[in-house]
Amino acid sequence: MTTAAKTLSFNPENLDRCVSILREGGLVAVPTETVYGLAGNSLCESAVRKIFNVKGRPLIDPLISHFSDAPKAFEHTCANASAQKLAAAFWPGPLTMVLPKQSSIPDLVTAGLSSAAIRVPAHPVLRQLLEQIDFPLAAPSANPFGYVSPTRAEHIIPTLGRKIDAILDGGPCQHGIESTIVDLRDEEKIRILRPGPVSLDKLSEVLGTTVSSPSNIPATDDAAQTAPGMLSKHYSPKAHIEIQPHGYLHIADRRTNPNNRTATILNSKPDAVDANETDIFWLSEDADIDTIARNFFHLIQICDRQGYDHLIIEAAPNTGIGIAINDRLQRAAAR
Ligand code: TXA
Ligand code: MG
């Protein structure tokens, strides 16, 4: 594709256009409540292959399939009682389940694994789109492999805009952090593979059992066999990232290093900030954790485009979605 993809606002005509593109095996960047996804027909191998090519993603890293409802998702997988409980509690929503797959999902989607990752998203625009098609949508985050995930349509234009057929604009994503992934293949050993908006405590409460945390899964490339996407280095901007513990409020002194543009990103607005200070940013006014999550990838991308070489980022408090933010922060900082 040589011309830039059109960003389409949400209306019936544009929805029809996206449906046609997807039916013909094309790719559309779609809004979800977590991050934007790069969507293609999950059951069409040529569309799935395009997704891997466009992202520059290795074929060993499987994709999530998105469905309009739980019964459809469970047609393509072997759901157990725990999966049914989680679907009732959290779908539509930011939870991805890993279950044994049926042969209807191509091996290309699951990177040859015997399991499939499935999700019923909550974003109203994507839900309308899914209701108009009779196939699931394979959709990884709509960023080049290893880069920061997009949480607004405008993030996709400079990175994948020339390689895809359309971008469906559904506004800024509500959560701003990718879905929680839970491995349900063995009901005796249910574990989180990737922390996200649905916390471990909420999962454990609904299941009435203890779910294992992802800290048991080493964040190394060796973990690729069990959690293929959990590479130690991921979500990385061009700028180098330095993490400071939560509560650290020092403002970087860029004057001491004029050749290295440094930005400081805080959780909340500092009490006193000099009107001339241009290199300090905050993720929320008042440390609201959901706002911090929503702005996290967005602000990193803004700083990257503004040409900062170095980002000093304050970690989030390590509770709830803060655990997922800190997971992404550590991977973004890995070299
Ligand atoms: O919120 C989200 O989950 C977003 C939106 C677009 O739905 N999608 C997303 O996809 O984050 P992606 O491809 O960027 O991350 C999916 C993760 C990868 O780490 C992949 O390795 C893992 O899910 N995954 C997919 N299938 C799997 C499977 N069968 N077993 C274990 N991990 C799997
Ligand atoms: Mg991703």
List key phrases describing it:
binds threonylcarbamoyladenylate, globular, alpha/beta, 4-stranded parallel beta sheet, 10-stranded mixed beta sheet, 335 residues, binds magnesium ion, 18% strand, single chain
- By secondary-structure content and strand pairing, the structural class works out as alpha/beta
Number of beta-strand segments = 14
Helical stretch tally: 9
Main pleated-sheet profile: 10 strands, mixed
Shape: globular
- Measured on Cα atoms, how large is the radius of gyration? 20 Å
Low-confidence stretches: 219-225
| Oligomerization | single chain
Termini separation = 32 Å
Mean pLDDT: 91
In helices, the fraction of residues equals: 25-40%
Please provide the ordered H/E string of secondary-structure elements: EHEEHEHHEEHEHEEEHEEEHEH
Estimate what percentage of residues fall within beta strands: 15-25%
Spatial arrangement of strands, main beta sheet: 1-8-2-3-7-4-6-5-9-10
- Small molecules in complex: threonylcarbamoyladenylate, magnesium ion
List the helices and strands and how they pair.
Layout: E1 6-8, H1 12-23, E2 28-30, E3 37-41, H2 45-55, E4 64-66, H3 70-75, H4 81-90, E5 95-100, E6 115-119, H5 124-131, E7 137-138, H6 153-160, E8 166-168, E9 180-183, E10 191-194, H7 200-207, E11 240-244, E12 262-268, E13 280-284, H8 289-305, E14 310-314, H9 321-333
Parallel strand pairs: 1-8, 2-8, 4-6, 5-9, 11-14, 12-13, 12-14
Antiparallel strand pairs: 2-3, 3-7, 4-7, 5-6, 9-10
The site of magnesium ion has 3 residues, from loops.
